[in-house]
Amino acid sequence: MHIGHGLIEGETILKLLRVSLLAGGFCVLLNPVQAAESAESWYQAGQNWIEGRQGTADTKPQARNVILFVGDGMSLTTVAAARILQGQQQGQTGEENYLFFERFENLALAKTYNTNQQTPDSAGTMTAMVTGVKSFAGAIAVDQGATRGDCASMDGATRVSLLDLAAQSDMATGVVSTTRITHATPAALFAKSPERSWESDRGLPPTAVEAGCRDIARQLVEYDVGRGIDVVLGGGRRAFYPSDWSDPEYPDIMGHRSDGRNLITEWQERFPAGRYVWNHEEFKAAMAADSDGPILGLFQPSHMQYEFDRPDDPGGEPSLSEMVTASIELLQKRSDQGFVLVVESGRIDHAHHANNAWRALTDTIEFNQAIEAAVGLVDMDETLVIVTADHAHALTFDGYGVRGNPIMGYAVRPGDGPESERTMRDHEDQPMTVLNYATGPGYRRDDATIDFRTMDPLTPDYKQKAGTWQYSATHAGEDVPVYSIGPGADVLYGVVEQNVIYHSIINALPRLKQAEERLRDASGLPQWDGVTRNDSGGD
Ligand SMILES: [Zn+2]
Are residues 314 and 256 in the same domain? Predict the structure, then answer.
């Protein structure tokens, strides 16, 4: 009886829905959402979501600090496989293990699509998380009112980031990434650009220079909100040096700047108490020196090493855990008004693009360690910690492996016979690994230079098999997990649009909320009042 009644009710709802859709007219049916979409609508929807979840609660959260951890490309499958790998490294079967952040009490799923792309890129998704509005693929803190690659189209479309709000409020600010610091995810915090690839002036087309656009490295060094950024740690130093400069660690690599500027010298002149470091020894010495000046660490000409390869780095570089620990210690000294720290484990994504699950998972485990270190250093009564991914990757985890099956190995069914007989095989009698990819360079081509069919899947350079060949694996469009803990975290549950993450942070930190309110115009959207373009053109 009960079930029957529920079915009738469902049918009635469907009928009502159809009637109301038809009443809305055919154009609404064809493109029901996009017609109404704008920066204002994304922003308002994010605010409404949080207000709805907050309800009539009269005690608003009072967080002082926020740490946003972004595992680039860290899909749910990545988390499940990394949890098992970590457990197996500790001598367990693995499945029963939890990563540290998996024990956070709040969990949501975020829809990651860009305004123009079903499966997103990191620029548009990070823009959603740190400005509160979804945007297009390639967008660095500009909204969908701008056009990719068109400098002049940014006018009126540049958005205020979490970092901007914190810097304006005299809070301490930090950006940490294992990628180039000018790469899409970190860039969305301190730069405004309609094109993610404008990392140095070499990447800027002449039309953009004429229209007064500045490259992302330059925007980092010239960042003029408040006292500037307190902590910047990552890779990518080549974008800061002129083309006649040779890298101290890899002398064959030259600077990327065509304008002849040395942005590191400029940064040092701007911050006489600041410390620039480029290797592990200098980093450790700077942190031990007990100075409270800002720090800029750029540990590779391009991206930092994967955690697995880090011990072999010629110049030596810190781990993500070390960078996070040092950042929090310094941020706590830089301001007594709290801090905003954003940490990206950026190379989980790169390893997935290469179909190399080993490095994706070992970077995820190090990311987890950095999160555990951070939580141990802060007062959790006043710190909101959010762990999420910008988008997923098409790593798959399948077969019917026995409990404790090595996660990197072939899928071996439970049973008593010899392992070779229990190993799952495809139609060509090839053994099947537990982890595979939907797309990427691991597709078994006959013209491949390395035949991964003959390589042991337990070796670190192994590429898992891909179903469809792509030079570089594509991102995936599935939802990503959002784990959170601390004051204000309890609004992050259910399935959310990704820009809701920004609004949950603003809701939790009164200081950011006040800064945002000062910048709001009649539309209700906070307006960026900093430099976007040089009026004089490309100086
Ligand atoms: Zn990617």
Answer: yes
Environment of ion ligand 1 (residues, CB < 5 A)? 349
Q: Does 282 lie in the same domain as 376? A: yes
Q: How far apart are CA 327 and CA 331, in angstroms?
A: 6
18: CA distance to ligand 1 center in Å?
39
| Domain residue limits at 139 | 62-394+482-518
* Residue 483 host element (H or E): strand 480-485
pTM listed for this prediction: 0.92
Q: In sequence order, what are the beta bridge partners of 106? A: 484
Same domain, 407 and 389: no
Per residue in 276-295, pLDDT tens?
A: 999 999 999 999 998 889 99
Expressed in angstroms and rounded, the spacing between residue 362 Cα and the centre of ligand 1 is 17
Catalytic residue status for 327: no
Q: Is residue 326 part of a domain?
A: yes
- 487 and 469 housed in the same domain: no
In whole angstroms, give the CA distance from residue 89 to residue 308.
14
pLDDT band at 444 (very low <50, low <70, confident <90, very high): confident
| Helix, strand, coil percentages in the chain from 3-state DSSP, rounded to 5 | 35, 15, 45
Q: Is residue 309 part of a domain?
A: yes
CATH number at residue 181: 3.40.720.10
**Inter-axis angle of helices 500-508 and 39-54, nearest 10:** 50
Task: Indicate whether 19 belongs to any domain.
Answer: no
Whether the CB-CB separation of 64 and 337 falls below 8 Å is answered with: yes
Mean pLDDT of 42-70: 91
Q: Are residues 408 and 488 in the same domain?
A: no
Return the exposure string of 434-467: e unless at least 16 CB atoms fall within 10 Å of the residue's CB, then b.
bbbbebbbbbeeeeeeeebeeeebeeeebbbbbe
**Confidence label for 23 from pLDDT (cuts 50, 70 and 90):** very low
* Same-domain check for residues 313 and 446: no
Please give the pLDDT value at position 133.
Answer: 98
Give the active site residue among 75, 122, 321, 484: 122
Provide the greatest CA pair distance for the chain.
Answer: 81
Whether residue 10 is predicted with pLDDT greater than 60 in this model: the reply is no
Distance 55 CA to ligand 1 centre (A): 37
Distance from residue 350's CA to the centre of ligand 1 (Å): 6
Query: Which residues contact residue 20 at a Cβ distance below 8 angstroms, ignoring those fewer than 6 apart?
Result: none
Looking at residue 536, what is its pLDDT? 45
What confidence score (pLDDT) does residue 529 get? 86
**How far is residue 266's CA from residue 261's CA, in Å, rounded to a whole number?**
8
The CA dihedral of 15, 19, 20, 21, to the nearest 10 degrees, is 100
Q: Taking the CA atoms of the chain, what radius of gyration do you get in angstroms?
A: 24
